[in-house]
């Protein structure tokens, strides 16, 4: 069978939504740290999609694609991997690709089964509605019986979503010592409590968590709740993220909607303190909106609404790129459904020191110059960036 015929066969079966699961393995290059890709169909907000689980040597990442996008990506997987196993409803298709892309294929008829499409029930419900959790009761998200209050359901979903990211990051966190975790701009500290509950109480990690916020009364209230719950290794401080100097090493830095450049300060401190993991959901960032000057984009930027959204997306792209340049594997991921909040991008950065290529540095500079941007984060990271390339000193 020729490769194009194989692709037609897979396309037909994928389009018939008969996939149960698939595994793509045996990378062609030994240096490829992506060892395996697990594939399964899921329902994403009632739409059929294909979920890829990328199993790297140290970490696992997920990506959801439409059938069409997955079919296009298959070409890349054919180039990079040799072994493929697809389980469809009534048959299993196993094939290998040689160096010269010759196909050896084996098809086996199987007992019919149906795909389990519910989206990852276990993962999206790390905290269950109906199961009492002390901090959620104390913060007024749940009743004493463990029922999530209707008006707090979005908050509950947000906490659960965030914990999914925490769970995915565990593999990257250091082992065998106390973990240091900071939440900058913690506010009422739903996430700070959730982190503590999940990592300490459910998973049993030894850790030390601090939430920092400007608001004295809110912080006092959080400290009182922590004391009531007996959360001895969770502390709260009143303070400005700009002045915070209580740590020199941090393992996990978290921010959720830390206003404006408070997010940038948190990202920069996380880099300074060698955080292994950064999970940051930015809030508004007005700086670039004021600086934007790019006439080729005037068709878009003439509209205030579009300019604001563009500035916000460009800011997060710049943040992600800067983190990559200073040695983080960075992804921008959907945090929660758009209908809940427009602030739904999560920056996930895993420390992975790698010197950026000149091409990457130039690509970043070209983007920044195109927009006439003078990013706050770039200034905050100027020491590190200057060590990487003199071109990165503004
Ligand atoms: C939108 S609230 C988010 C609170 C919390 N992270 C959450 O999502 O529920 C932003 C918080 O950041 C805090 N904040 C803003 N700028 C700050 C700064 N420079 N230093 C410390 N906290 C700051 C505010 O006081 C506020 O509580």
Automatic annotation (TrEMBL):
A single Pfam family it belongs to is Methyltransf_32
Upper lineage: Bacteria, Bacillati, Bacillota, Bacilli, Bacillales
Q: What is this protein called?
A: Methyltransferase domain-containing protein
Q: Quote the InterPro entries the UniProt record gives.
A: Methyltranfer_dom, SAM-dependent_MTases_sf
Q: Name one GO cellular component term.
A: cytoplasm
Spell out the Gene3D superfamilies in the cross-references: Vaccinia Virus protein VP39 (3.40.50.150)
Give every Methyltransferase domain span. 154-291
Organism annotation: Exiguobacterium sibiricum (strain DSM 17290 / CCUG 55495 / CIP 109462 / JCM 13490 / 255-15)
